Amino acid sequence: MKTIVVKMGGVASDNLDFEFFQQIKLWQAQGHNIVIVHGGGNYISQMMEKMNVPVEKKNGLRVTNQVALDIARLALLGQVQPMLTGRFQAEQISALGLNAASDRLIEGHIIDFHKFGYVGQVDKINIYLLENLMEIRQVPIIAPLGMTEDGQWLNINADDVAAQVASQLQADELYLLTDVPGIKKENIWMKKIPTEEIDELKDKKIVTGGMLPKIESAKKALKAGVGAVFINNCISSKGTEIGAF
């Protein structure tokens, strides 16, 4: 029995097609545990623009003041997560939406308030909650929001959350879904990237923007014992696999 963690980006969340749910059902039929972590950056940006709140990003992370944090919570918990859980349930897959306030699911700390505002990094995941849900064949669907020990909400990159969840569950596979079929080098989609080449890809600007947190999260997850990491736009093929080859 495998444990599989799937991170869905905001765009990927719009592409919940027949093929996606067939793969989820196949994994379940094989007895595998599945955890979903969802992003929603495009929904947050759209809501910020409608409210005339400036969108600013640094190193692929959204600069998050209190207003942006409130909007992120509204978009993720009020829009994206209900849409996802509704789609899973419509496919007869038992799923439960979770966030940082769900039995202290995600605890973290502020990275650099002066630079990023309320952007956090994960310290601890309540894996017992996730394991209990998976035991009764529920699919946890997790929003990338955390809390500090004293209750301050944090906006956390969804790739980081997924990597930490996968690491602490010692997952067999981690899928980081995005809107492209992997990582491209010299106009070729790469099938495999050894972990020791990651820094070179960053230095040569082959990996930039929103792909930076993905590749860093993949590196951290593999180092922590996750079996394999795939960056792709669907879960029925491997896309770009990152690992020790």
TrEMBL record:
<feature type="binding site">
    <location>
        <position position="155"/>
    </location>
    <ligand>
        <name>substrate</name>
    </ligand>
</feature>
<dbReference type="InterPro" id="IPR037528">
    <property type="entry name" value="ArgB"/>
</dbReference>
<keyword id="KW-0547">Nucleotide-binding</keyword>
<dbReference type="InterPro" id="IPR036393">
    <property type="entry name" value="AceGlu_kinase-like_sf"/>
</dbReference>
<dbReference type="InterPro" id="IPR001048">
    <property type="entry name" value="Asp/Glu/Uridylate_kinase"/>
</dbReference>
<feature type="binding site">
    <location>
        <begin position="40"/>
        <end position="41"/>
    </location>
    <ligand>
        <name>substrate</name>
    </ligand>
</feature>
<comment type="function">
    <text>Catalyzes the ATP-dependent phosphorylation of N-acetyl-L-glutamate.</text>
</comment>
<dbReference type="Pfam" id="PF00696">
    <property type="entry name" value="AA_kinase"/>
</dbReference>
<feature type="site" description="Transition state stabilizer">
    <location>
        <position position="7"/>
    </location>
</feature>
<dbReference type="InterPro" id="IPR004662">
    <property type="entry name" value="AcgluKinase_fam"/>
</dbReference>
<keyword id="KW-0067">ATP-binding</keyword>
<keyword id="KW-0028">Amino-acid biosynthesis</keyword>
<protein>
    <recommendedName>
        <fullName>Acetylglutamate kinase</fullName>
        <ecNumber>2.7.2.8</ecNumber>
    </recommendedName>
</protein>
<comment type="similarity">
    <text>Belongs to the acetylglutamate kinase family. ArgB subfamily.</text>
</comment>
<feature type="site" description="Transition state stabilizer">
    <location>
        <position position="214"/>
    </location>
</feature>
<feature type="domain" description="Aspartate/glutamate/uridylate kinase">
    <location>
        <begin position="2"/>
        <end position="231"/>
    </location>
</feature>
<dbReference type="GO" id="GO:0042450">
    <property type="term" value="P:L-arginine biosynthetic process via ornithine"/>
</dbReference>
<keyword id="KW-0055">Arginine biosynthesis</keyword>
<feature type="binding site">
    <location>
        <position position="62"/>
    </location>
    <ligand>
        <name>substrate</name>
    </ligand>
</feature>
<keyword id="KW-0808">Transferase</keyword>
<comment type="pathway">
    <text>Amino-acid biosynthesis; L-arginine biosynthesis; N(2)-acetyl-L-ornithine from L-glutamate: step 2/4.</text>
</comment>
<dbReference type="GO" id="GO:0005737">
    <property type="term" value="C:cytoplasm"/>
</dbReference>
<keyword id="KW-0418">Kinase</keyword>
<dbReference type="GO" id="GO:0003991">
    <property type="term" value="F:acetylglutamate kinase activity"/>
</dbReference>
<dbReference type="InterPro" id="IPR001057">
    <property type="entry name" value="Glu/AcGlu_kinase"/>
</dbReference>
<dbReference type="GO" id="GO:0005524">
    <property type="term" value="F:ATP binding"/>
</dbReference>
<keyword id="KW-0963">Cytoplasm</keyword>
